[in-house]
Known about the structure:
The chain is mainly α. About 65% of the residues lie in helices and about 5% in strands. The protein has 26 helices and six strands. Strands 1-2 form a two-stranded antiparallel ribbon. Strand 1 and strand 2 form a beta hairpin. Helix 17 packs across helix 18. It is rod-shaped and about 170 Å long.
Amino acid sequence: VSAGVSSWKWVMDGTGRGPGGAILPPPARMDGERVAQLVERLVKGVVARELGTEAPPALCGQLVHYSLRILGSRLTPSFVHDEFRMSELIKKRLLREGRKEDALQCTDLLRTLSTFDVLRRKSAILHVLLALASESTPSEDTALVQSLETVFADVGLRVVHEVESHYDTEASTPEPTPVKHRQPLPKAAVADEVNEDVLVRDVLFALQGIDGKYVRYDGHHDAYVVVSGEVSPSKKVLIRELCELGWLYRRLQTHLDRMTAQESIGLVGQSLVAALHEELRDYYRLIAILQAQTTASSSAGSALTLRRLMVWSLDPVQRLRLMNILVDSTEGLKGGALASAIHGHLCHGDSFVHSLVHRVMSRIVSPLFYMIRQWVFEGELEDPHCEFFVASDPAVKEDRLWQDKYSLREAMVPSFITTDLAHKILLIGKSINFIRHCCHDAEWVADASTSAVDIAKMEFGEVGTITEVITRTANVTNRHVMELLFHRYKFQEHCMAMKCYLLLGQGDFIQYLFDVVSPELSKPATGLYRHNLLGMLETAIRASNAQYDDPDVLNRLDVRLLENNEATSGWDVFALDYHVNAPINAIFTPEIMGSYQVISNFLWKLKRAEVSLSSVWRRHMMSAHIVVQLADMKEDLRMCHMLRHEMIHFINNLQYYIMFEVME
């Protein structure tokens, strides 16, 4: 080491000057011829400096030959190319041996070495020097060391102190022997210990979920263990850490196989399986590269070690851990609920986690976006596995389409879609089906879907675009529904008919109808016939201004006899009725019409009370000349007149309040 450092100091002194002050030009590229020239120059300089004269050509040729063989051989196993780490190891070794001055000198030399860019593999040079200094026992490199000692002893070079205690400097000069490569496992290892190449092969099998000869999966411990063979504790620790990747892969593959076998997993679940298989492609590619490297390294002499494999496995372990977390979070979920569970992992500060989850989300939302497109632009609900947040009840008839046929599944609404937006999506598809089935306007649905294809560009993450498209489509659909109701189906005319006939707003018609049906309704309820009452209704229509109303409205006006077991008079069972059909019945539902009937019957009873009181007043007026002659009853008759006036006053005010203050 001292000789090497001394040589470096000479070569690197100043700005890289060689013997005689000649500046060493930086190599354009380190090919074989350039390396040989530099080694020859270094050997000549060192020998000339030690001998004080020009180096003999034969000795220089022999030293250059051995130096090139040393550089071309594999003296040490693989190491991390870290110049700082090598520098720290050298200084720690010097301080541990109590050589503080040498440590300070080495620090200065290393600082000088770091300022030069001529040498590109400084960490490799430091590693060679440290390895030479760390040699403590004779090994397979003894022949090489003895050959070097003999060669340098012939030219009078002194032996380094650190090496004197380990190698014999008095040995005779042997014949040149070829330099042997250092094996991955030292000779001091246990004779029966399993070769590391075999362990690496088994670990690669474990990473694919396959049991090897020495490394197998233990179901009892739920882990990969070394089942046979002599393996050092340190390697067992490495194998256990490496096989975590295989355990994660085995667990993930088991979940994916189970999900694939389930028929009820749905399109979103299938998309999740496909996305995870897509993410596993990089893992499969890594396994293939490692296997290829193992095959190539066995022939090239640079074996793939467990420690190298540990470095390769850092990124895949993180990836497979995250994928297992995603699978666990979606256990038992499907559709929008599954998408919400995955979306919950998107808000993560780690860019690696965010990018992977984003890629998975881009795949699994495709079925949901397709369902949304079909629903809001075609009104079609393609959801065979009940994954969409819009549900349909096929048992509901068309007359209840708007109220009961379609509903919102709150649990299936994805977290990236707001509740308001989900209700708006539900309303769009419901309106399209209302137009198609109730309003019988299928042509407009086709035209709307054709024009909407250009704006149906919804991608994951573009919430603003989705909201804008849905809002614009909802406005177009709702506007057309209103146009159909108010123009083609005359919704406003039907509302006026309700007011005029059921709520007794058409005064002349109601008065004439009351006068016509009063004799008939005074009969017992069992003596009423509907066809007789219908004839009286037609007479009242022709005799009043109601005859000028729309014929479609007049045809809907009808008479209904209520079911009342306690009824004694026709007044108790008679009621006016108004028939509504699609699409008007979506607004005037049976429940709403029932409320109208209750109000109509109440108003009809008020009208009957008013007419009855008016009839009483008329009879009183007609018999006034007779009553005058009854002086004894004068006071009683006066009280009857006052009571009648109070009742008429109350009925008139109640009618006014109901008709104007309430209904208007």
